[in-house]
Q: What sequence folds into this?
C-alpha cells in the first residue's frame, strides 16, 4: 500500500456561488464538505485509480471526528493519532472565474502528541511501498518534521515524496526523499535566486533524489537522477485548481512504486493534475479530461 501523511488534516468546505459581493449578502448555490488536507486528497486520487492506500496524520475534536467519518464513508482506511486540539476547517469560495481559499492554522500539537504519532508512523511503514508527506505543519512540530519522517522511511527501505512549502520544504532534502514536489512559487521561496532548473538542482544537491516542479498550465519540470525533463501541456483546463497538485503527486507516487520511466510517470502526473482542475472539489479528477489530455502531453 501507499501511506499518505497529513499532519494538518482539515474538513474542507467548498461554497459554490454566483459572483461574490464583497460588502453584501451572498447566496450559496451548493456546499461540499469532505475530509481534506493534501495527503487525504492524494489518497482519494490513488484509491480512485485502484491503489491500496492508508491515511495517517493527526486529528482532534469534533472536526477530527467528522474527518474520520467522511474517510470511512468514502472507503478510505485511516490510522489517525488523536490530539487534544480541534482539527482545522478550510473554506473555498468558488465563484465564476475565481476561487478564494481560506486556511485555518490547525491545532497546536504537543511534543508528546507528536512523539505518539512518530511511534504510529514507524509501525505503519512496515506495510508501505511508498509514503507521501504533504501539506502544511500544524503549530508545534519542528520545521524539519518531514526530514525526520523521510529519514525514518528511508531507513526501512520505503521511498518518500515530500510536497511542502516554506521551512519544511527547505529542511526536507536533508532526509533524502526520493522526490520533492514544489510548485514554482514554493521553489522560489525555498531557493530565492536562479531559474526553476537551478532551484531544483539546488534541492537535489541538498539531498533530494529528484525534484518535480509544477508550473501550472505550463506543465512540469523534473530534475532527476537520470536527466532533466519537461512535460508540456497541449492546452489549459478551466476550473478549480485546488487539489491539482495533490492529483499530480498521486501520479508521481504511482510512478514511484511501479518504477516506470520518468517520461511515463510525468505524463500521467501532468494529466491527473489537469483532470483535477476540471473536478469541483479537491481529491477528485475528471476521467474524461484525463483520457483526453494524457496522449497529447509532450515530454522533452
A:
Amino acid at each position: 500500500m501507499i501511506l499518505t501523511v497529513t499532519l494538518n488534516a482539515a474538513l474542507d468546505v467548498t461554497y459554490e456561488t454566483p459572483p461574490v459581493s464583497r460588502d453584501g449578502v451572498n447566496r450559496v448555490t451548493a456546499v461540499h464538505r469532505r475530509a481534506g488536507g493534501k495527503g487525504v486528497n492524494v489518497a482519494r486520487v490513488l484509491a480512485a485509480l485502484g491503489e491500496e492506500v492508508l491515511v495517517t496524520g493527526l486529528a482532534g475534536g469534533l472536526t477530527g471526528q467528522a474527518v474520520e467519518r467522511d474517510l470511512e464513508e468514502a472507503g478510505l482506511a485511516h490510522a489517525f493519532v488523536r490530539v487534544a486540539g480541534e482539527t482545522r476547517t478550510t473554506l473555498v469560495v468558488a465563484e465564476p472565474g475565481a476561487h478564494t481559499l481560506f486556511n485555518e492554522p490547525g491545532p497546536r500539537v504537543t511534543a508528546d502528541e507528536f512523539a505518539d504519532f512518530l511511534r504510529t508512523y514507524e509501525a505503519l511503514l512496515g506495510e508501505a511501498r511508498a509514503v507521501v508527506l504533504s501539506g502544511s505543519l500544524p503549530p508545534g512540530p519542528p520545521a524539519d518534521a518531514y526530514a525526520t519522517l523521510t529519514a525514518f522511511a528511508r531507513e526501512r527501505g520505503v521511498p518518500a515524496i515530500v510536497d511542502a512549502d516554506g521551512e519544511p520544504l527547505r529542511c526536507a532534502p536533508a532526509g533524502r526523499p526520493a522526490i520533492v514536489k514544489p510548485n514554482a512559487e514554493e521553489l522560489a521561496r525555498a531557493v530565492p535566486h536562479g531559474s526553476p532548473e537551478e532551484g531544483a538542482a539546488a534541492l537535489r544537491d541538498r539531498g533530494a533524489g529528484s525534484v518535480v516542479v509544477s508550473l501550472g498550465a505550463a506543465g512540469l519540470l523534473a530534475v532527476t537522477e537520470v536527466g532533466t525533463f519537461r512535460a508540456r501541456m497541449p492546452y489549459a483546463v478551466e476550473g478549480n485548481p485546488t487539489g491539482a497538485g495533490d492529483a499530480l503527486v498521486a501520479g508521481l507516487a504511482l510512478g514511484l512504486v511501479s518504477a516506470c520511466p520518468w517520461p511515463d510517470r510525468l505524463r500521467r502526473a501532468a494529466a491527473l493534475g489537469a483532470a483535477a482542475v476540471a473536478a469541483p472539489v479537491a481529491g477528485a479528477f475528471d476521467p474524461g479530461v484525463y483520457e483526453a489530455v494524457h496522449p497529447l502531453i509532450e515530454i522533452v
Q: What stands out?
A: The longest helix spans residues 262-277. The domain at 1-18+30-140 is CATH 3.40.1190.20 (UDP-N-acetylmuramoyl-L-alanine:D-glutamate ligase). The mean pLDDT is 94. The first strand starts at residue 2 and ends at 6.
